Amino acid sequence: MSGVLALRAQHKDRFRETHGIGLGFMSFFARACIAALRQIPAINAEIRGDEIVYKHFVHLGVAVGTPQGLVVPVVHHADRLSFAEIEREIERLAGLARTGKLTIDDLSGGTFTISKRRRLRLAPLDADPEPAAVWHPRHAQDREAAGGGGDEIVVRPMMYVALSYDHRIVDGEQAVTFLVRVKERLEDPARLLLEI
Q1: CA distance 75 to 91
Q2: Is the torsion defined by CA of 118, 121, 124, 126 positive or negative?
Q3: Hey, what's the torsion of the CAs at 76, 81, 85, 87, to 10 degrees?
Q4: Cβ(73)–Cβ(65) under 8 Å?
């Protein structure tokens, strides 16, 4: 997470001045997942009847804790939104969730979900017609890692992630490839800005 943390620290004040919203981690996570979904379309698919439907858009579900429990409002067409627009929409939906004012439309149509979970052991999904996959980031924590030359130990902020997915649509190779693509973009967040 070093790259994301550095980029966020460098630009968060200017981002807030320019866009009137904080630069959180969720927009980085969202953009990394959206880029990976474009490469692994099965993870953004659903089973409809006897067919697998591949979607060419991302309606991103974002889990929000409320006093009444967890809800998952949806950022519609997240793939078309900028970092600031994603942050603004997540803040708007989270505010509605916490005050109990979400509508059915706010909760409908998700194609992929980001949900912070405390456990890494996750059950396979089977929730027609909800998302085929849910990405689970954990909190970044300082951990020991091999340095640049491999012969020294350094401390870096690292984060575990997991992916729950519908095994009827997604196989293990696709799931691992998706996680690798997300990891690559979070380790080098300039790729998100350049869309590479």
Answers
A1: 10
A2: negative
A3: 70
A4: no
Check if 167 is active-site.
Answer: yes
Choice among 13, 59, 167, 188 that is catalytic = 167
Q: Could you report how far apart the first and last alpha carbons of the chain are, in Å?
A: 18
Three-state DSSP at 5 gives helix
- Does the N-terminal peptide bond of residue 189 adopt cis geometry, omega within 30 degrees of 0? no
At 140-186, the pLDDT tens digits run: 788 887 776 667 888 888 888 889 889 999 999 999 999 999 999 99
Residue 167 CA to residue 102 CA, distance in Å, equals 31
Catalytic entry in 56, 128, 171, 188: 171
C-beta of residue 195 within 8 angstroms of C-beta of residue 42: no
Q: List the chain domain ranges.
A: 2-188
Q: What is the pTM of this model?
A: 0.86
Contact predicate 137/161, CB 8 Å: yes
Per residue in 39-75, pLDDT (tens digit) is: 999 999 999 999 999 999 999 999 988 888 889 999 9
The architecture of the domain spanning 2-188 is: 2-Layer Sandwich (3.30)
Reply yes or no on whether 106 is catalytic: no
